[in-house]
Amino acid sequence: MKYYFLTIFFCTISLFAQKKKEKVEIDSTTYYIEIANFHKKNNNFGSSMDYIQKAIKAAEKNKDYLAQANAFSFLGNVYFELKKVNDAILIFNKSIPLYAKQKPTANQAYTLYNLGLCYSEKKEYSTAENYFNEAEKIYELINVPEGKELINLQKGILHQIKGDDDKALTIFSTLISKPDDEDQSKIKSKAYYYIGQIEAKRNRNNLAINYYNKALELSSKYKDLQLSADVAKSLSFIYEEMIDIKQSHKYLKQHLTLRDSIRVLNSKRVGTEDFLSFKEAERLKAVEQMNRENKEQQRANKFSKLISILSIALISILSLLSLSLYKNNIIRSQSNKLLQDKNQELIQAKEKAEKASKARAEFLSTVSHELRTPLNAINGITHLLLEENPKKSQMQYLTSLKFSGDYLLTFINDILEINRVESENIEIEKINVNIKQLLSDLHNSFKDLASKNNNDFVLEMDENIPENLIGDPTKLSQIFINLINNALKFTQNGKVYVKASVTETKDEECTIHFDIADTGIGISPEKQSTIFESFSQGSVEINRKYGGTGLGLAIVKRLVELLGGQIKLTSSEGIGSTFSFDVNFIVGEQQFVEVKKHYDESVFENKKILIVEDNKINQMITKKMVENKSIQCEIIDNGEDAIEMIRNHHFDLVLMDVHLPGINGTEATQKIREFNKTLPIIALTAISLNENREMLLSYGMNDVVTKPFNPDNFYRSIAQLLS
Predict the structure, then answer these.
(1) Count of Cβ atoms closer than 10 Å to residue 391 Cβ
(2) For 601-722, CATH number?
(3) Which value, in Å, is the radius of gyration of the alpha carbons in the chain?
(4) How many CB atoms lie within 10 A of CB 328?
(5) How far apart (Å, rounded) are the C-alpha atoms in residues 503 and 354?
(6) Contact yes or no for 212/198 (Cβ under 8 A)
(7) Nearest Cα to 435, choosing from 402, 393, 479, 394?
(8) For the chain, first and last CA: distance in Å?
(9) What is the pLDDT at residue 399?
């Protein structure tokens, strides 16, 4: 079989020489695979793995799925040759779904074949057979008969392992009848070896020796050291059974020599001097053991009677030892049974705790999610009434109602956020972030709250902070908002400091230390140990005076940990508190671009919007908010009708509720994208624990607006998509 790696090898020599001559670095997946194969052929597996990692990165950067699959397949093959079977399985399984996106290829079949070899090595023969069958189907589909020969060899081996020697013998006999060429001869050498095993098992020793010799001849010709070692070992055993001690020792010595050669080769692969020393010691031990056995054999003829007596004594000792082992096994079995029972109890207790935690999270998530729909009506109607010039006597009531709605929304958001971060169903973004701009914006946003409590709000930033860092601006904003809000809330007639300074710069990484300090009421020592727990505040009196959910610091602690840092607290009652943490950033290559925050209301003129919403109150509120901007709109209460309406009429934008009767909003969006890929669609959702913005955008939606609506965010999202 002409393996694709053989072709890559010859290409490697040419391209590697060309690279030396031209000294031009090429960022190419194929090039890196070729260099990796060159090092692998020279037993430099360390360099080979370095280059294949570069190949994987290049393929991922270019979004070349076939190249990724080939690179992962090559790396899996390297791990398998280094006997790292479990690692090889993991890597091969990364390549399988990537191959599935392409037309069937020989590389894909060869990867499945290698997976079968891995599971055979682990003695999971049923799984191995399944992978061999999948590989065979692809070889048949693309008409690669050489690949089928490899599969047939492995099927014969599996039949032999299962004890079905007749089926195995039929397959092996077919393989050895094929015409000779290099690849076929390699397969035939193994077929001869396994036929020899079957014949030896049937006590047809002379016939077995004949097949072993043919296997040894071919394996020696093509330098298959492992097979040669196995054949020599089998010949030693079979000659020992035939009481031909001289021949037995001859092949045993040949086996030991080949085994040493294999160890030398493997030691070069891993490149450790300790392994070479170990190999040499083992070789000397084997030679010494063989010499001892020769001397013992010479003395055996002179002292046969003594040996017989010693054999009887040895049998007696072994019998006593077996009895002792039997009793020990009974005791061990009883101990294992006790440990298994205890482990089962622990597993059940763990499962109960996990179920209780999951039930709590789902309950809080459901409650917070279901509260959003009526709260959307409260906040929406309040916003509409405030825009319609209410009477002065009504203004106080409406302002209080708006404040209460906003407070309740903050409470619900905190419950949902703590559930989200505790569920570990959260990912860290790695995008451009301008720390200076982010902190400056927050400083401006909190000026009103600072002046309300007559606080001096100071921002100090290190000039050495790079402008373009890679990080997660959303989670950083959540951390700073919670900490700054607490500092300003619990401080009156004092000072609040936000400091950012570079503590370490190494290569392309930058570590920034953040301090949020205040001169407020402080935290008592006994409360500092629990202040980061959910629903925890300094005291009942503090909760009544200042309000809040007691979730902010729990959220901050979890988010800082997700970013790789650790939040620290220093506080004294009546003096103030300081929260500090470090975050590691990668220095980015692109400049940070500030997102526009304002919009021109002229974009709303002469626009037509479709509102897809089943709740009547939400329909009324959304329609009124849209019409207040002179936008025409139509309302549909289900996904099926919305699809047909969009198919037959023109709309400039769609406001799509996620939770609809029949097909939901995400399914409706996917169907719309089948015939209209440019129509802007905004998701409207009372977002739950299992939803997130990225998930909704993946269905084809352009933006997400969370219920209850923040009017400014609502109009801004529409304006950005209409402009």
Answers:
(1) 8
(2) 3.40.50.2300
(3) 37
(4) 10
(5) 40
(6) no
(7) 479
(8) 60
(9) 66
8 A C-beta contact, residue 674 and residue 716 = no
Helix (H) / strand (E) containing 98: helix 85-100
CB 482 within 8 A of CB 559: no
Q: In whole angstroms, what is the distance from residue 461 CA to residue 454 CA?
A: 23
Containing H/E element for 211? helix 205-221
Contact call for residues 590 and 432 (beta carbons, < 8 A): yes
Cβ burial, residue 596 (10 Å; 0-12/13-18/19+): exposed
Q: What residue type is assigned to position 335 of the chain?
A: S
Beta-strand pair 632-636/608-612: parallel
Question: Distance between CA 189 and CA 627 in Å, rounded?
Answer: 82
Alpha-carbon distance of 77 to 92, in angstroms, equals: 8
Largest CA distance in the chain: 125
Q: Is residue 412 within 8 Å of 447, Cβ to Cβ?
A: no
Predicted pLDDT at 7: 38
Whether the CB-CB separation of 600 and 723 falls below 8 Å is answered with: yes
Which residue matches tokens 């036929």? 195
The residue type at 37 = N
Residue 213, CA distances (Å) to 56, 150, 236, 255, 256 in order: 44, 22, 12, 14, 17
Burial class (CB in 10 A: 0-12, 13-18, 19+), 128: buried
Q: What is the pLDDT of residue 512?
A: 93
Tokens representing 523 are 């935290």
What backbone torsions phi and psi does residue 609 show, to the nearest 5 degrees? -120, 140
pLDDT at 668: 95
The class that CATH gives domain 435-587 is: alpha beta
Mean pLDDT, 10 residues at a time, over the chain (723 residues)?
39 41 53 80 73 82 85 84 83 87 86 89 87 86 82 85 86 80 77 87 88 86 82 89 88 86 68 38 47 69 72 80 81 81 80 66 58 66 71 66 61 60 65 87 84 91 88 85 88 93 88 94 83 59 51 82 90 91 84 55 91 88 89 94 94 93 92 95 74 82 84 88 88
**Beta carbons within 8 Å of 487's beta carbon, 6+ residues apart:** 496, 516, 517, 518, 520, 577
Angle between helices 205-221 and 225-241 (to 10 degrees): 160
594 vs 592: CA distance, rounded Å: 6
Q: What is the 3-state secondary structure (H, E, C) of 469-486?
A: EEECHHHHHHHHHHHHHH
Neighbouring CB atoms inside 10 A of 103's CB total 9
Contact 346, 393 (CB under 8 A): no
Which H or E element spans position 500?
strand 495-506
Contact 519, 497 (CB under 8 A): no
Going by C-alpha positions, the residue among 127, 126, 115, 172 that lies closest to residue 149 is 172
Query: Which residues are paired to 431 by β-bridges?
Result: 471
The C-alpha atoms of residue 590 and residue 114 are separated, in whole angstroms, by 42
Whether residue 620 contacts residue 635, with contact meaning beta carbons closer than 8 Å, is answered with no
**C-beta of residue 68 within 8 angstroms of C-beta of residue 95:** yes
pLDDT value at position 72? 85
Domain boundaries, the chain: 435-587, 601-722
Least Cα distance to 183 among 157, 232, 218 occurs for 218
Alpha carbon distance 361, 373 (integer Å): 19
